[in-house]
Design brief:
The protein has about 375 residues and is α+β, with helices and mostly antiparallel strands. The protein has two domains: about 130 residues, Immunoglobulin-like; about 140 residues, Immunoglobulin-like. It is about 25% helix and about 30% strand. The protein is built from five helices and 24 strands. Strand 22 and strand 23 form a beta hairpin. It starts with a helix and ends with a helix. About 20% of the residues are buried.
Length: about 375
């Protein structure tokens, strides 16, 4: 049976639509399977700032977890989480989705920036099996879409905290939470310059620092890979243009004593004596950090002071930001330089006059000699 022209057009239109729909659907599937950068923010209250989390890809494990015939996907996930919290799930099928130190604490919350593919991910408390109070486990499906169908790349998570049912009830009073032994956040301060009279010149860019600690009686320094070793392999940190910020982040640091060492000033005009270039750091807890004796914060400024033209000005490496009183040294320097200029000008004038007198004498001697020679020729 042959189709008329109009029927053929309709059939071809339907086939074209189906082809486009299939291509679009396949494109969405491929997009869902690709890695997507996702930022997760675990919102914490003041009582649980010491929580440490871990993210696992549990897609394979969840697919092998038995599902009842009449059980919905949501019920299946909830039952899986319950078994996780009872510590009855085989973890051999779990795969870590973040590297060590990828979970960073700042603004009072935990931030994870990770690339995730399509699947199911489990966020758990690292200390869930030993802590008396733990964060409830959470299943996260990827990709997660918003009400407009767009893939969500920022997830704010509000965990629940509960008494750990795994631990036996000893009827003992609750203990104070332990201070974490590792600081995962950033260390930072701001580098400013001072004039010779002690006035703040603002941010200094280009000053260079290395970060170290004492170990076995000698200094060791942090390198790019996060290891501690020789000074020549140390990670170099530079103060930023515009702010003078010097920061180190992404390296887990145990609580204890460290130091920044300034290896190069912003310019040759600034002091780099031993008491200036060594900046002590004391990490008492992730929230209690002191740099050069000052508590770390937005106003922590460490100064480099300009050198005098005659020797060194006594320096303190970190002083308050208030303006220091003027001592009149600028006028002294100006008058001294003016005196040098007058002395040099006088010496130049004296030398020019001396040379002029010598030239006149030489010319007069030449004239006499020439006259005598002509006279002798005439007499001869």
């Amino acid at each position: 049976m042959q189709l008329r022209g109009s029927k053929k057009k309709i059939l071809y239109s339907i086939l074209g639509f189906l082809l486009l729909f299939t291509s679009s659907l396949w494109g969405n599937v491929r997009a869902d399977e690709a890695l997507k950068d996702v930022e997760m923010v675990v919102m914490l209250d003041d009582a649980h700032k010491d929580i440490q989390v871990q993210l696992y890809d549990v897609t394979s494990s969840l697919m092998k977890f038995p599902k009842d015939i009449n059980e919905s996907t949501e019920e299946h996930l909830r039952r899986y989480v319950t078994e996780v919290e009872k510590a009855t799930i085989d973890k051999s099928q779990w795969h870590s989705a973040i590297s060590e130190g990828a979970a960073v604490m700042y603004d009072g919350n935990i931030h994870l920036h990770v690339p995730l593919a399509k699947g199911y991910y489990l966020l758990i408390d690292k200390n869930a099996e030993v802590a008396p109070t733990r964060m409830g486990a959470m299943i996260i499906k990827q990709p997660l879409r918003d009400e407009n169908g767009e893939i969500m790349q920022l997830l704010e998570l509000f965990p629940k905290f509960e008494k750990n049912p795994i631990l036996p009830d000893t009827n003992e009073p609750p203990q104070e939470p332990k201070v974490p032994s590792v600081m995962n956040g950033a260390l930072y301060f701001y580098k400013h310059g001072l004039t010779v009279t002690g006035q703040d010149e603002g941010a200094l860019a280009g000053a260079e620092f290395i970060f170290g600690k004492r170990k076995d009686g000698k200094n060791v320094y942090l390198d790019l890979a996060g290891n501690w070793g020789e000074k020549e392999n140390a990670l170099v940190l530079s103060s930023k243009e515009g702010t003078g910020a010097v920061s180190i982040r992404g390296y887990p640091l145990e609580l204890g004593e460290y130091f920044f060492e300034e290896t190069q000033t912003a310019s040759f005009e600034y002091d780099l004596s031993d008491d200036v270039k060594h900046i002590n750091v004391s990490i008492k807890s992730p929230e209690d950090i002191y740099i050069d004796g000052q508590k770390m914060g937005e106003e922590l400024i460490i100064f480099n002071q300009k050198l005098k033209r005659r020797g060194l000005l006594p320096i303190t490496s970190a002083i308050p930001r208030e303006m220091l009183p003027s001592t009149g040294e600028e006028w002294t320097i100006f008058l001294t330089l003016l005196g040098y200029d007058v002395l040099i000008y006088t010496l130049i004038i004296f030398e020019l006059r001396h040379q002029s007198r010598l030239n006149r004498r030489r010319q007069a001697a030449k004239n006499v000699s020439y006259f005598m020679e002509e006279k002798e020729e005439t007499n001869g």
